[in-house]
């Protein structure tokens, strides 16, 4: 028999299909017959015969799931061998012959599915082998049949419902399918991404995870668990290899995988484009995305219909406003929907509901189907409501659809269909309701349906067939089960065959990295959980090594935009290291590390994955950093130093120092880079190296040859290459970098940490900030991509007080200044400058920071300004630096450094128009503070006075080159907007403020410096009349008037005689300053239109001053001094020809009257008759 099959089917591949319309089937049969001696009809007959042999008898089902081997089973095995041979020989050419292909699609597959669930392990194994061959050669024409085989056979048996032996066969068969080159991606594309198909690949992955999941009682893994586990690892490796071989270099960015589903896309409900099309991958991904969202909508709908409909609109799964067709498709093809709620909606009398019902019915094809089969298919999709009117509406629409598609012409009208449907429902209730004792007979049923077909009877044979069908097989009118049937009954198979004639063919495609990534995402959760549980509970080192291989494969996949999966993987590994156990002391952790191979393997896997795939790690950095800190505390972390100048790190080993460069040296875990870095071959080699590292009895380099546990641990930790994580962070994604930095900042702040001593805390903090400095140095080229998130972390921590002997501001201020030093160094970046100093500003603003850290802050500011003043570009940075300097420099220990820094600026080349105002503010705040010693205050006032010289220099520069707004290397706009006059006004305003200080020496020194500044300005600054009058009205005169008011205030207080006399002396000096200013600028003042008004105001104030009583000698001294001041001012006006005795002159007449009130003799002395 086998030879006959070979003879007949051997030459089938040599027969090419005819061109359409070129040769008819009879000619093809003649051609085939001339070669083999047999035609295709013979092949069809042979296949029919072989299929009939499969039905020789069913094996009895026992508690084990199958009966003992029998002759019938031997026949089935032999038959399957013959069928396999025919398929292997015929291959793809079977698909060229429609009748042969149809036989395979219908009869053969139906028998295979039927007997697979009723036979023993051998038959099941042979059936799976046959289906595997069919998949290999003919899957393009077997899309629905393959789905049915997986859903109703392999997945069901693999769940264990048919016994452990059949389960093992089914699991092995699934793994065999998974080993096919393109099986994974093709299953995902054809089924998981199809809105109306089962999620076959997802169910396979979940089933393997469930099967491989170990028992927690510590027992060894069973063979079937090991098979499932091996299959899982193979799936991971296959996906990882394919995604790395097809993904471009930039595909690890999560943004590359985002889908735009901001609006409803009706194209997703139509036929997909060809796989070679540029839009095919995106189309498939969007369909899968829509399918997932539809399942969420179904969940909401089952809880609340309104919320479900709202979610459909929110997720853009239906158009706005919703169309009946889209709602109907949602009800028809969404698994898991509550069938009762579907029935209630379809039976509702609303206009839109009726339209949905009609569209829902249009999704069925009843062509060539007998009425009871059509009714069964229709009613299986929802639960028929109990209200008679709703049932009537639903049956009416169904009857109309069935009548339009009937091919036999039995029914004359749709009313006849409607009446017969009602009769069938009544018959079904009568025969299958246990409460009905007297059952309807066939004659009664036929009699009840007389003359319903427009007055005529329906054929008796037809009614009899319907009666027997209903009486033997009930229609599930009120089923609420939303899951798929456990068995593929005849009705479902008939529907499947009908749909297979119109469904799109099986899509054959190669791996696409976007698709296999999505495929893995569907099973990632249970996969990681299974891997981790097996690793945790198994005692088999080989299985643990295979677990690590699976973990690395998962990481290879997760690096492509699945950071949450990678985070979960690494977090579990952190847990297995036991370093995160808060109740474990240092000694216990060290002892466990020395004894536990699992802990060491977890450690190696953790840092191997963190090094290799750190660019995609996000939330897991918190746990990883905690593990590193714990390793440092228990003295297991190799000592390494970090050079903040270039971001490199050195690893200290047994008397030598090795520099860790950006490219890893060859080592146990990281061999030199080669083309196979992402392949499974590379992973296998890596796992071998894991074993080599952990081996205690092989090789010259094995750890058994090391003399102590400390050397063993040092060797192991060196292989982890922990420092490389930070020095090579320049390759991390922005999101990963942000999480890493935040983790370091929070640990450095003491958040969530428990320290046993202050020394341990301080060492940990310094270490964390060293790492943060290393990370920042490695990423200076994209500083603004990550620092705003770091700043948020600092700002968050600044709002919470953490009780510690080593406060958070003190921890953070020095590292931030170190980073700032790097930022202000060329090449320049204004945004980066401002960002780092905003963080410094946040830290300094914390309460008591200046008091705690002044001795640290001032040297840092001084060094930064002295060494990098020429590189600072933004006014914000200057303002921040100088404000910090002024506030922290008030302490006696820091006065000298602060004053020296300010003096270096004013005497050096780096004081510019852009930073002068901030410098002046800093000098003023430092000089007039009550804690500043007198000599220091005087020194600062002198410094302020000398700052007039840079202003003159800028004035001369603007005159010589009026179009040049360059602010001496500073490119900011602020310097160009500030004219020398603005800066001069800033200077004299700041000098005028100390004239009200409590210490007389400071007041008098401020007046002296004011005189000097105005004298220099009169000579070189070319002040305009308006500017001079502005100075007079808004600065000089208010200064004198404020001193007058201050003197009065002191006089009115008790026991303030000394202060009154002191303030009165300064008041007299101020009036001298008034006269001096007036003499210098009287010509410019006179040229202004407001001169007369201002002059009369001065005379009125003098009149007030001289009439005020200041007490005792002070009054006499002030009253004696005012006429002298007035005389000097009048003399200056006379000498410049401004005040001339002239009748009718308002200036002269007003002055003469006012002056005689103040000093009656002054006018006569200066203007004798």
From TrEMBL:
<dbReference type="GO" id="GO:0032012">
    <property type="term" value="P:regulation of ARF protein signal transduction"/>
</dbReference>
<dbReference type="InterPro" id="IPR023394">
    <property type="entry name" value="Sec7_C_sf"/>
</dbReference>
<dbReference type="GO" id="GO:0005085">
    <property type="term" value="F:guanyl-nucleotide exchange factor activity"/>
</dbReference>
<dbReference type="InterPro" id="IPR032691">
    <property type="entry name" value="Mon2/Sec7/BIG1-like_HUS"/>
</dbReference>
<dbReference type="InterPro" id="IPR000904">
    <property type="entry name" value="Sec7_dom"/>
</dbReference>
<protein>
    <recommendedName>
        <fullName>SEC7 domain-containing protein</fullName>
    </recommendedName>
</protein>
<dbReference type="Pfam" id="PF12783">
    <property type="entry name" value="Sec7-like_HUS"/>
</dbReference>
<dbReference type="Pfam" id="PF01369">
    <property type="entry name" value="Sec7"/>
</dbReference>
<keyword id="KW-0344">Guanine-nucleotide releasing factor</keyword>
<feature type="domain" description="SEC7">
    <location>
        <begin position="283"/>
        <end position="473"/>
    </location>
</feature>
<dbReference type="GO" id="GO:0016020">
    <property type="term" value="C:membrane"/>
</dbReference>
<dbReference type="GO" id="GO:0005829">
    <property type="term" value="C:cytosol"/>
</dbReference>
<dbReference type="InterPro" id="IPR016024">
    <property type="entry name" value="ARM-type_fold"/>
</dbReference>
<dbReference type="InterPro" id="IPR035999">
    <property type="entry name" value="Sec7_dom_sf"/>
</dbReference>
């Amino acid at each position: 028999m086998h030879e006959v099959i070979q003879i007949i089917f051997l030459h089938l591949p040599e027969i090419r299909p005819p061109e359409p319309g070129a040769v008819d089937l009879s000619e093809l049969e003649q051609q085939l017959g001339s070669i083999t001696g047999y035609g295709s009809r013979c092949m069809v007959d042979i296949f029919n015969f072989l299929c009939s042999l499969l039905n020789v008898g069913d094996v009895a089902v026992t508690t084990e799931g199958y009966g003992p081997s029998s002759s019938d089973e031997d026949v089935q095995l032999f038959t399957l061998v013959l069928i396999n041979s025919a398929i292997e020989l015929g291959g793809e050419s079977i698909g060229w012959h429609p009748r042969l292909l149809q036989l395979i699609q219908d009869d053969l597959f139906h028998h295979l599915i039927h007997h697979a669930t009723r036979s023993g392990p051998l038959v099941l194994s042979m059936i799976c082998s046959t289906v595997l061959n069919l998949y290999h050669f003919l899957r393009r024409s077997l899309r629905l049949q393959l789905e049915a085989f997986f859903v109703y056979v392999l997945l069901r048996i693999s769940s264990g419902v048919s016994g452990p032996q059949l389960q093992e066969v089914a699991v092995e068969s699934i793994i065999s399918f998974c080993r096919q080159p393109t099986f994974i991606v093709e299953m995902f594309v054809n089924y998981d991404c199809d809105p109306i198909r089962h999620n076959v690949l997802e169910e396979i992955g979940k089933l393997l995870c469930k099967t491989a999941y170990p028992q927690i009682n510590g027992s060894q893994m069973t063979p079937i668990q090991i098979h499932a586990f091996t299959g899982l690892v193979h799936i991971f490796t296959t996906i990882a290899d394919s995604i790395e071989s097809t993904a471009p270099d930039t595909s690890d960015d999560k943004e590359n995988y985002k889908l735009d589903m901001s609006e409803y896309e009706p194209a997703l409900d139509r036929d997909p484009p060809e796989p070679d099309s540029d839009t095919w991958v995106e189309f498939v991904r969007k369909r899968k995305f829509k399918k997932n969202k539809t399942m969420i909508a179904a969940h909401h709908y089952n809880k609340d219909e309104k919320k479900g409909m709202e979610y459909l609109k929110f997720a853009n799964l239906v158009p706005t406003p919703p169309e009946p067709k889209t709602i109907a498709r949602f009800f028809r093809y969404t698994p898991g929907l509550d069938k009762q709620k579907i029935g209630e909606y379809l039976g509702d009398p609303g206009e839109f509901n009726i339209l949905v019902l009609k569209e829902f019915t249009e999704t069925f094809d009843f062509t060539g189907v007998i009425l009871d089969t059509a009714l069964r298919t229709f009613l299986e999709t929802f639960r028929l409501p109990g209200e008679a009117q709703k049932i009537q509406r639903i049956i009416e629409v169904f009857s109309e659809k069935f009548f339009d598609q009937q091919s036999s012409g039995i029914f004359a009208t749709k009313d006849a269909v409607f009446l017969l449907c009602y009769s069938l429902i009544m018959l079904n209730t009568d025969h299958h309701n246990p409460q009905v004792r007297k059952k309807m007979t066939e004659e009664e049923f036929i009699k009840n349906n007389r003359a319903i077909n427009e007055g005529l009877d329906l054929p008796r044979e037809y009614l009899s067939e319907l009666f027997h069908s209903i009486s033997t097989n009930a229609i599930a009118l009120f089923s609420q089960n939303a899951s798929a049937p456990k068995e593929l009954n005849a009705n479902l198979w008939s529907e499947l065959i009908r749909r297979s004639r119109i469904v799109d063919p099986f899509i054959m495609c190669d791996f696409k990295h976007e698709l296999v990534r999505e495929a893995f995402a569907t099973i990632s959760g249970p996969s990681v959980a299974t891997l981790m549980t097996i690793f945790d509970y198994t005692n088999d080192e080989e299985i643990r090594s295979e677990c690590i291989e699976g973990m690395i494969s998962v990481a290879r996949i997760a690096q492509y935009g699945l950071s949450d999966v990678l985070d979960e993987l690494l977090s579990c590994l952190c847990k297995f290291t036991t370093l995160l156990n808060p109740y474990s002391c240092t000694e216990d952790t060290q002892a466990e590390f020395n004894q536990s191979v699992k802990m060491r393997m977890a450690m190696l896997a953790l840092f191997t994955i963190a090094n290799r795939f750190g660019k995609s790690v996000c939330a897991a950095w918190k746990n990883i950093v905690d593990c590193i800190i714990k390793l440092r505390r228990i003295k297991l972390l190799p000592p390494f130093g970090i050079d903040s100048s270039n971001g490199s790190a050195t690893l200290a080993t047994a008397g030598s120092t090795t520099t860790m460069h950006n490219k890893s040296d060859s080592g146990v875990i990281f061999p030199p880079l080669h083309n196979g870095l992402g392949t499974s071959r590379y992973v296998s080699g890596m796992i071998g190296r894991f074993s080599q590292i952990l081996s205690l009895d092989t090789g010259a380099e094995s750890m058994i040859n090391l003399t102590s546990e400390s050397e063993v641990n040092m060797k192991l930790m060196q292989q982890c290459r922990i420092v490389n994580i930070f020095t090579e962070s320049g390759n991390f994604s922005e999101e990963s970098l942000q999480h890493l930095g935040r983790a370091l900042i929070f640990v450095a702040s003491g958040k969530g940490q428990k320290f046993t001593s202050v020394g341990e805390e301080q060492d940990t903090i310094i270490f964390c900030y060293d790492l943060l400095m290393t990370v920042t140095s490695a990423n200076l080229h994209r500083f603004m991509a990550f620092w705003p998130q770091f700043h948020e972390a600092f700002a968050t921590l600044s709002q919470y007080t953490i009780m510690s002997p080593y406060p958070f501001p003190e921890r953070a201020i020095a590292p931030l200044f170190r980073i700032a030093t790097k930022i202000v160094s060329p090449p320049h970046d204004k945004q980066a400058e401002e960002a780092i100093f905003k963080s410094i500003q946040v830290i300094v603003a914390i309460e008591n920071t200046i008091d705690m850290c002044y001795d640290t802050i001032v040297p840092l500011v001084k060094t930064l300004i002295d060494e990098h003043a020429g590189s600072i570009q933004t006014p914000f940075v200057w303002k921040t630096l100088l404000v910090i300097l002024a506030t922290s420099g008030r302490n006696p220990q820091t006065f000298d450094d602060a004053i020296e820094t300010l003096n270096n600026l004013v005497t050096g080349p780096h004081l510019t128009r852009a930073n002068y105002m901030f410098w002046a503010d800093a000098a003023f705040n430092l000089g007039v503070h009550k804690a500043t010693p007198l000599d220091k205050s005087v020194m600062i006032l002198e410094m302020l006075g000398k700052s007039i010289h840079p202003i003159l220099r800028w004035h001369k520069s603007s005159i010589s080159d009026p179009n040049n707004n360059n602010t001496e290397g500073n490119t900011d706009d602020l310097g160009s907007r500030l004219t020398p006059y603005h800066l001069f006004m800033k200077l004299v305003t700041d000098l005028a403020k100390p004239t009200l200080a409590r210490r007389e020496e400071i007041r008098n020194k401020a007046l002296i410096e004011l005189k000097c500044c105005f004298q220099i300005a009169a000579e070189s600054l070319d002040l305009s009349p308006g500017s001079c009058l502005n100075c007079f009205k808004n600065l000089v005169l208010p200064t004198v008037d404020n001193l007058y008011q201050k003197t009065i205030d002191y006089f009115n207080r008790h026991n303030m005689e000394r202060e009154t006399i002191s303030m009165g002396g300064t008041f007299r000096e101020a009036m001298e300053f008034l006269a001096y200013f007036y003499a210098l600028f009287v010509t410019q003042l006179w040229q202004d239109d407001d001169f007369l008004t201002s002059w009369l105001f001065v005379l009125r104030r003098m009149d007030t001053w001289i009439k005020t009583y200041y007490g005792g000698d002070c009054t006499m001294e002030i009253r004696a001094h005012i006429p002298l001041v007035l005389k000097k001012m009048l003399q200056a006006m006379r000498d410049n020809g401004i005040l001339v005795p002239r009748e009718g002159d308002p200036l002269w007449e007003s002055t003469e009257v006012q002056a005689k009130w103040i000093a009656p003799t002054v006018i006569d002395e200066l203007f004798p008759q």
